[in-house]
Write a structure and sequence with these properties.
The structure holds two protein chains of two kinds. Chain A is α+β, with helices and mostly antiparallel strands. Chain A is built from 22 helices and 39 strands. In chain B, the strands form two sheets. Chain B has a seven-stranded mixed beta sheet, with helices on both faces. The chains are: A alpha+beta, B alpha+beta.
C-alpha cells in the first residue's frame, strides 16, 4: 500500500515531523515501511529549458542534436537519444556540473564528434515518472510565470511530499486505504483524525430522479452480501482525469486509464472501498440480483475470458437472471463502461470474505479490489462516504447524480459490544495498564471502549469493534490493538524460567556423535535438496516409487527421494567435473518412502549415507564398523546379496539385531555410468533413525582377567562362498568364554591354493577369568575350534 | 708391582678414553680386566705374599680394578650415546613433508548453525523437537488457525504432494507443524525449539532456495506473557549474536499468533535487520491441541537458519549451501 504524506494530511492535517521518524512510527504500528521516497525534490541544477532547434546527428542515427535555451538566451547544443520533443517544447535540462540522483555528474563532452553540453532529462531520471524512454515534456505543466532557467521544482510547482510503501498485513483491511493509515498514524502521534466533507453542492444532483425509482436490487443470498448500495450517474463522459488525480494514482502505483476507472481506483485507495460501475444501458430495468452461482453458469469477464462458475462463487445477475458480474472479483464484459456510455450504475457492496477468497484462489484472480474484499472491507458508514466521494469526483467532471441510494442489507458480522477482561489483557501482554488506559488506546483508533466496573470493583471493558475491522473478533484480538497503541517496545522484558531442564535427546546427541565420527573419517557433510528428477531412481537401479509433487518448480525437482544415493552420485559427478575426483561425503537426512498401508503421509525416515569416491567396498565396511562402535549396535551382520543399485559381487545387506538396517559395498558400475561418475564409489546407507531408536549393546562391563593369555594361529582354506564372518562365528562358538579376542590377520589367494578358495588366517587369544590356562586346556580348545570350523564349513586347516 | 700396575691403569684410562667402538672396548676390557690381565695375575699371586703385605696389596689391587672398571663403564656410556645419536641422525625426518596428509572432514554450514542454535536454546532450558517434512493440511494450516479460504494460505507458496485429496498433503511451508505435533503429544509446560527443513515455491537464486531451514520456538506454561516473549528473544540474541546486539519487536500478523510481531536485531551501523516472526500462541491453536487457553498461555517464534550461515560467512549466493562443491565444503 503506497501513501503520501499530503494525502494522509487530508484526514489528519496535524501529521508532521521528520519523515524518517514518521517511518519508524508507521513500522512500530505494524505498517512496516518497505520503502520511503522523498518526492517533489528535483535535482539541483535541473532547470526549465526550451527546445530551439532539432537536427540530425551527421554521424549517428540513434541520437539527434538539440539546441536548447536554458534561460540565457543562447543556444546550447546537446546530443540526445530521445526523439519525442518538438521545436518550442519546454523540457527539463541538466547543465554540465549537475549531479543526477544516481550520482552521475553531467559533463560537457563530444559524442561522435559533436559537442554535448548538458542533458535533456526523462521523467525517470528525475524521479517524476516511470518513463525512461522520452524526454519529459513540460508544456502543460509549467506554472504561470515560469521562466526559462528557473529551477524545475519551482517551474512546475512541485511540492515536497513523502511517499511510503507500506507492507499491510492480512489482518489490517482498514490499512488498505489512505484514510485507515491516517487513522493509525494520527492515533500514534496523538493528533486528530477526521474525514473531510465529501458531500457535493446540490447542483450536482438531479432532484428529478431518485435511485429508488431507477434501480431494483435483490439480495437472494444474505450470507454472500452484507450490504449492496447503488445509484445512477448520468451525463458521464469518459475522458482523461485531472492531473492531480492522475499524479496521485501514479504515486500509489496505479496507471491512470480514464476518468471513470481513475475515480473508481482513487476512491478505493483513499477510503478502502472497492466499487464497480455498470453501463446502465446494459442493465435492463436497472434490476440487479445478488446470489451464488449455479454450477455450469459462465461469465465472460472484463478481460475477455470466459469463466466457469461454481456454487461458491458470488454473482450479480440481471432481470433475466443472467450473470453479468462476479461479485467482488471482476465485472462482466457485457456491462462494461465504454466510450459510448453516458449513464452509469455505481455499485458498492460488502462481500463475505471467505467466499471472495475461495473464488480468487480458484481463478487466481488477485486484484486490488478482491484483495480488500477478502481481507474484509467496511460495511458501515464508509460505504456511504465512498459513494459520496465517487459522486463528488464524478460531478466535478460534469456528471449528474440522481437523488439518494438504493441500500439493501444482507448478513453482516455481529457488532454487539464484546466483554474484555483487563486482567486477561495485562496477563497476556505482561503489562499493568488500567482499564481506562486500555480504553483510551482503543478509542484512538475508533474502537468503542467503555470501562465497566463490576460489583466487586473490577474495571473491565465493553468493546465495540468498528465495522472496518472485520478481522477483529475476540479478546485476544483486542489485546493486540492495545499492545500496538501502547507500543511493543514499552512492554517490559522478562524471561520465563520453566521447571524443565533443557537438553538434547539421546537420539540427537548420538546423531551428532555419528557426524563427528564421519568427519574424523575424513568425510565432508553434504546437504543436497531432497528433490529428484523423474527417472533418477531408475538410473540408480532403485524402484521408481518416489512420491511426486503436484506443483514442482521444475520437473528436475518433481520427485521426493527414497534413497540418498541419487543425490550423492550427482554431488560426486559435479565434483568430478570440477577436477575433484576422490571426494568423501556423508549425509544424514530425510527420505520419503511411499506411505504405509492406511497412512496418508509418506513413510519418512532419517537415513545416513557415506559415499567414498575412488574407494572400494572395504572402506565402506570400515565406516560401518566405526558407526557400529559409536552407536554400540548389537549383533551387526552382513547378509550376502546384491542390494539394488549396488555392485553385484561387492555389496551386502546390513542386518542389525535381526532387522535389515541398510546396505554396504560399492555402487553398481552401470549406475555410476548412468550418473557420469568415474572410478569406484564405496557406499554405505543406513536407516539411521531406526538404529538410533533401536536396541544397543549392554552398558555392563566385562571384567578384565588377571591371568595370562595364550595366542594360537589357525589358517583355513575356505571357499569364496563361505563368508569370513561365518568362520569367525564358528570359532567364537567353539572357543566359548575362553576365546577373548579374534583377529583375521591374513587373507591369501593365489599360488598353492585351489581357484575359488582363499586362506583365512586367524589369531585367537584364549584366557580364563579364574586361572592360568594349562597347555592341555589350550590344546583342547584349539582342537575344538578346528573341528567346529571343519565340520560346519567343510574346510580344512591349512598346513 | 703395584707401581707397575698403577702405570698399567693409567695406560688403560688413556686408551679407554679414546676407544672408538664396542669391539675395541671389549678387547680392552679383556686386556686390562680379563683372566690373563696383569691385574688378575697379580691378584692370584696375593696368596704368596706375607700377611701384612697381602692386605695392603689386596686393597691397592681392588682400587686399581675399580678405577679401570669405572673407565670401561664410562667408555661404554660414551659409545652408547654416540651410537644413539648416530641412529637418531640416520632417522632424521622433515616433518613439514607430512603436513596435510590426514584429513578431517567438515560439518555442513547449516549443521554448524543449527547446532549452535540448539546449544544456545538448550542452555536456556529448551529441548529440541523434530517432525516430518511432508505434512497434512491439518498440521501445516488448519490446526494453526489458517482455514482453507484464508488469504494467508496463498502467501505460503506451498508445494503440494500427490497424495490424498488435492492440496491435502504438502511439503511443510514452515516448522510450525511441529508446534502442533508437540502440543498433541505433550502436556504443558512446553519449552521446545524445532529446527528443520521447510519448502516454498521459490525458484532458486542467489537469495532463495525452494528447500531451506528454519528454527521454531514454542513455550506454553502458566502465566506466559508477551514480555516473556520479548525477553526470551532478547536473551537469545545476546547469547547468539553477542551482548551488544539489541532486539526489538514490531507488530505483524500471523494467523497462529495473537498478538503477532516481527523481530529485528540491531546492526553495527544502527539500522535494524528483520530476523523472524513471533507472537503469543493464538487461543484457537491451543484449543486445537486440547490445551485450555484460560489455563495456559504461550509464545512462539521462528526464523531462518540458512540466513544465519549466509550472514556469518558472508556468502553472496545461498545456492552454495546445496551445491555440495567440495571446494566450498572444505573451507569450514
Amino acid at each position: 500500500m503506497k501513501v503520501t504524506l499530503s494525502w494522509l494530511r487530508e484526514f489528519a492535517p496535524d501529521i508532521d515531523g521528520d519523515p524518517v521518524e514518521l517511518s519508524e512510527t508507521l513500522s512500530a504500528l505494524g505498517l512496516t515501511v518497505e520503502e520511503m521516497t522523498l518526492i517533489g525534490e528535483t535535482v539541483d541544477g535541473v532547470v526549465l529549458a526550451k527546445v530551439l532547434d532539432l537536427r540530425a546527428h551527421p554521424r549517428a542515427d540513434k541520437i539527434q542534436l538539440v539546441d536548447v535555451d536554458a534561460g540565457d538566451g543562447k543556444a546550447q547544443q546537446v546530443c540526445c537519444g530521445a526523439f519525442n520533443m518538438a521545436v518550442g517544447d519546454l523540457i527539463p535540462f541538466a547543465a554540465p556540473g549537475t549531479v543526477m540522483g544516481n550520482g552521475l555528474e553531467i559533463q560537457q563532452r563530444k559524442m561522435r564528434g559533436e559537442v554535448s553540453a548538458g542533458m535533456c532529462c526523462s521523467g525517470a531520471e528525475l524521479g517524476l515518472s516511470d518513463d525512461h524512454e522520452g524526454i519529459l515534456v513540460l508544456n502543460d505543466r509549467v506554472v504561470p510565470g515560469a521562466e526559462l532557467g528557473m529551477g524545475l521544482g519551482a517551474a512546475i510547482g512541485l511540492e515536497a511530499d513523502v511517499l511510503w510503501d507500506l507492507e499491510v498485513n492480512a489482518n489490517r483491511p482498514d490499512a488498505m486505504s489512505v484514510a485507515g493509515v491516517a487513522r493509525d498514524l494520527a492515533a500514534a502521534l496523538g493528533v486528530d483524525f477526521a474525514y473531510p466533507d465529501f458531500s457535493i453542492d446540490t447542483g450536482g444532483y438531479s432532484e428529478a430522479e431518485a435511485a429508488e425509482e431507477l434501480l431494483t436490487v435483490e439480495i437472494l443470498d444474505p450470507t454472500l452480501c452484507g450490504r449492496f448500495v447503488a445509484t445512477v450517474l448520468r451525463g458521464i463522459t469518459v475522458g482523461t482525469s485531472p492531473q492531480w488525480l492522475a499524479d496521485r494514482l501514479i504515486l500509489a502505483g496505479m496507471r491512470p486509464l480514464n476518468s471513470i476507472v481513475d475515480i473508481s481506483n482513487y476512491v478505493m485507495l483513499e477510503l478502502g472501498q472497492p466499487n464497480h460501475t455498470f453501463d446502465l444501458a446494459a442493465v435492463p430495468d436497472g434490476h440487479l440480483r445478488v446470489r451464488r452461482a449455479v454450477p455450469g453458469e459462465t461469465l465472460t469477464t472484463l478481460d475477455g475470458r470466459e469463466r466457469e462458475l461454481i456454487a461458491n462463487d458470488g454473482v450479480i445477475t440481471n432481470n433475466s437472471d443472467e450473470v453479468i458480474s462476479m461479485a467482488g472479483v471482476m465485472g462482466g464484459a457485457t456491462t462494461e463502461i465504454s466510450e459510448e456510455t453516458t449513464d452509469v450504475l455505481l455499485e458498492m457492496a460488502w462481500w463475505d470474505p471467505p467466499t471472495i477468497s475461495r473464488t480468487v484462489k480458484r481463478l487466481n484472480l488477485v486484484s486490488e479490489a478482491s484483495n480488500r474484499f477478502r481481507r474484509g472491507a467496511d460495511w458501515g458508514e464508509n460505504i456511504d462516504r465512498s459513494m459520496q466521494r465517487f459522486i463528488q469526483l464524478a460531478t466535478q467532471l460534469g456528471a449528474t447524480a440522481v437523488r439518494g441510494f438504493v441500500d439493501v442489507a444482507g448478513d453482516t458480522p455481529d457488532r454487539t459490544p464484546l466483554a474484555v477482561r483487563s486482567a486477561k489483557i495485562n496477563g497476556l501482554l505482561g503489562t499493568d495498564l488500567s482499564a481506562a488506559s486500555m480504553a483510551g488506546h482503543l478509542a484512538s483508533i475508533g474502537f468503542g471502549a467503555d470501562v465497566v466496573v463490576s460489583d466487586s470493583g473490577v474495571a473491565d471493558l465493553a468493546v465495540t469493534i468498528p465495522t472496518w475491522r472485520w478481522d477483529t473478533e475476540t479478546e485476544t484480538d483486542v489485546a493486540e490493538e492495545v499492545a500496538r497503541l501502547y507500543g511493543y517496545d514499552n512492554i517490559a522484558r522478562t524471561v520465563p524460567r520453566g521447571e524443565l531442564a533443557g537438553g538434547l535427546s539421546d537420539y540427537q546427541v548420538r546423531r551428532r556423535l555419528v557426524r563427528q565420527v564421519l568427519v574424523g573419517f575424513g568425510c565432508d557433510e553434504t546437504f543436497p535438496m531432497p528433490f529428484l528428477a523423474p527417472g533418477d531412481l531408475l538410473k540408480a537401479g532403485l524402484a521408481d516409487n518416489g512420491v511426486t509433487l503436484t506443483n514442482p518448480l521444475v520437473s528436475e525437482q518433481s520427485v521426493l527421494r527414497t534413497s540418498l544415493l541419487p543425490g550423492q552420485l550427482k554431488a560426486i559427478a559435479y565434483n568430478q567435473s570440477h577436477r575433484c575426483a576422490e571426494v568423501r561425503f556423508f549425509e544424514i537426512d530425510h527420505v520419503y518412502l511411499p506411505p504405509l498401508p492406511d497412512q496418508l503421509l509418506p513413510d519418512e525416515r532419517e537415513y545416513l549415507a557415506v559415499a567414498l569416491a575412488g574407494s572400494e567396498a572395504p572402506e565402506a565396511v570400515a565406516a560401518l564398523d566405526l558407526i557400529e562402535r559409536e552407536l554400540g549396535l548389537p549383533n551387526v551382520v552382513l547378509r550376502s546379496g546384491s542390494p539394488p543399485g549396488l555392485h553385484a559381487t561387492r555389496s551386502a545387506e546390513v542386518v542389525v539385531a535381526g532387522r535389515s538396517a541398510g546396505v554396504v559395498g560399492e555402487v553398481d558400475p552401470l549406475v555410476l555410468e548412468n550418473y557420469g561418475v568415474t572410478g569406484r564409489v564405496a557406499w554405505l546407507e543406513l536407516d539411521l533413525g531406526a538404529l538410533l531408536d533401536g536396541p544397543r549393546r549392554s552398558h555392563k562391563y566385562a571384567p578384565v582377567s588377571k591371568y595370562p593369555s595364550s595366542d594360537i594361529d589357525l589358517a583355513f582354506e575356505v571357499p569364496d562362498e563361505v563368508a569370513a564372518s561365518a568362520v569367525e562365528s564358528s570359532l567364537r562358538k567353539a572357543g566359548q568364554d575362553l576365546l577373548t579376542d579374534i583377529e583375521l590377520f591374513d587373507v591369501y589367494r593365489g599360488e598353492g591354493l585351489p581357484t575359488g578358495t582363499r586362506s583365512l588366517a586367524y589369531r585367537l587369544r584364549f584366557q580364563a577369568q579364574d586361572h592360568t590356562l594349562t597347555d592341555a586346556e589350550v590344546a583342547d580348545v584349539r582342537q575344538a575350534c578346528i573341528d567346529t570350523v571343519s565340520k560346519r564349513h567343510g574346510v580344512s586347516l591349512r598346513s | 708391582m703395584i707401581e707397575t700396575l698403577r702405570s698399567t691403569a693409567a695406560e688403560a684410562q688413556a686408551r679407554l678414553a679414546e676407544v672408538a667402538d664396542l669391539d675395541a672396548l671389549a678387547q680392552l676390557d679383556v686386556e686390562f680386566l680379563g683372566k690373563k690381565s696383569a691385574l688378575t695375575l697379580a691378584k692370584r699371586q696375593l696368596g704368596s705374599l706375607a700377611p701384612e703385605q697381602r692386605r695392603a696389596t689386596g686393597q691397592a689391587l681392588n682400587e686399581i680394578r675399580a678405577e679401570i672398571e669405572g673407565a670401561v663403564g664410562a667408555a661404554r656410556d660414551r659409545l652408547a650415546r654416540a651410537a644413539l645419536s648416530e641412529q637418531l641422525e640416520a632417522e632424521r625426518l622433515d616433518l613439514t613433508e607430512f603436513r596435510g596428509t590426514a584429513r578431517r572432514g567438515s560439518l555442513h554450514l547449516v549443521t554448524q548453525a543449527r547446532d549452535r542454535l540448539e546449544d544456545v536454546f538448550v542452555g536456556m532450558g529448551f529441548t529440541v523437537a523434530e517432525g516430518p517434512e511432508v505434512e497434512s493440511a491439518w498440521y501445516n494450516f488448519e490446526a494453526l488457525n489458517i482455514p482453507e479460504w484464508h488469504p494467508a494460505r496463498g502467501s505460503f507458496d506451498t508445494i503440494f504432494v500427490n497424495l490424498g485429496e488435492p492440496e491435502e498433503v504438502m511439503l511443510r511451508s514452515h516448522t510450525s507443524p511441529v508446534q502442533i505435533r508437540t502440543m498433541e503429544n505433550q502436556k504443558p509446560p512446553i519449552y521446545i525449539v524445532a529446527p528443520g527443513r521447510t519448502f516454498r515455491t521459490d525458484t532458486a537464486d542467489a537469495t532463495h532456495l525452494p528447500a531451506f531451514n528454519q528454527i521454531e520456538g514454542l513455550v506454553v506454561d502458566r502465566g506466559i506473557t508477551m514480555g516473556d516473549l520479548a525477553g526470551t528473544i532478547d536473551e537469545f540474541v545476546h547469547a547468539f549474536f553477542g551482548g551488544d546486539v539489541k532486539s526489538r519487536l514490531r507488530p505483524s500478523y500471523f494467523p497462529f499468533t495473537e498478538p503477532s510481531a516481527e523481530f529485528d536485531i540491531s546492526r553495527a551501523d544502527g539500522t535494524w535487520l528483520e530476523l523472524g516472526g513471533c507472537g503469543m500462541v493464538h487461543p484457537n491453536v491451543l484449543r486445537n491441541c486440547g490445551i485450555d487457553p484460560e489455563e495456559w498461555q504461550g509464545f512462539a517464534f521462528g526464523f531462518g537458519i540458512d540466513r544465519l550461515a549466509v550472514m556469518r560467512h558472508e556468502l553472496d549466493d545461498i545456492r552454495e549451501l546445496v551445491n555440495n562443491d567440495v571446494r566450498f565444503l572444505r573451507q569450514f
